[in-house]
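Summary: Need help interpreting a holo structure output

Steps to reproduce:
1. Submit the protein chain below together with the SMILES for zinc ion.
2. Request a joint structure prediction with the ligand placed.
3. Inspect the structure token block that comes back.

Expected: a single structure record containing both the chain and the bound molecule.
Actual: see attached output.

Input attached:
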Amino acid sequence: MPQMPPYGEFIFGHEYAGDIVAVGKTVDEFQVGDRVVVEAHMGCRRCENCIRGQYTACLNYGNRARGHRANGFTTNGGLAEYAVNHVNTLYRIPAGVSYEEATVVMTSGSPLFGLENAGGYFAGETVAVLGPGPIGLMAIQLVRALGATRVILTGTRESRLRIGRRLGADVVVNSREKDPVAAVMEATQGKGADLVIDCAGGDETFDQSIKMSKPGGKVLLVAFYHGPVTADISHAVRRNVTIYTERGEGGTSVGRALALLAAGRLTAKPLITHQFPLRQVHDAIDTLEQRTGDPLKVVLIP
Ligand SMILES: [Zn+2]
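--- attached output ---
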């Protein structure tokens, strides 16, 4: 990530949960013993974006002297026994939600914030989701909770597509076997989807997203791309397609995702495929990097 301190000089890990073991002098929002989960971003609270509530797009991003923190990105994160967090970045874990599930719920904070940017209301609409990774699998559940009545999922890995079906995708397309744009057009009688969410970040998925949205529809980009990508932007302009982005888990969306989880409208359990003790952090990262056993979320536990 941009502005990340050099490897070896800071503690990474931006999705974590734990117990409060100490509080600052003025803190009365939390007490020792509370179970909490974090969001990564704390804005500087002094720039115009922060004042307007857009703290994940802080104008002092990465400037620690001005008070900005993004734990696990620009300041120390959670792959440790202890971490320091501002009260603004903590949420109490509801009873019945485990630390592991709470940790993964931050993965739904980003798509939830993106969906809010894209209007946040999808009653009766058809949504296409590209990429059945952790964020895509959360996005499926979130658009369901926000009223979408039909969800089409495209991706390449069969095991993940199966989980997508379990979590609410009505139509599942393996894009190795079938052109995903043609599949979405077919499933929507040639209209295209009302909303397309790119959670894949592939070389072609932005272009595909534009082409599978209906005229006047919306495209939401949640993925990070590996580098510059090519897309037929004119196709979007000619058809009045609106493109939205999101940065991080803004809008206190982690807290709201946690509420959805506690209410049973979101599940994190199927995403947790591996667990390792913290001292085996290298094994955990190897598992993710080498895709050993098709990992989705690898959780480190004490
Ligand atoms: Zn700021």
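--- end attachment ---

Reviewer comment: The first strand starts at residue 17 and ends at 19. The domain at 109-245 is CATH 3.40.50.720 (Rossmann fold).
Status: needs-info
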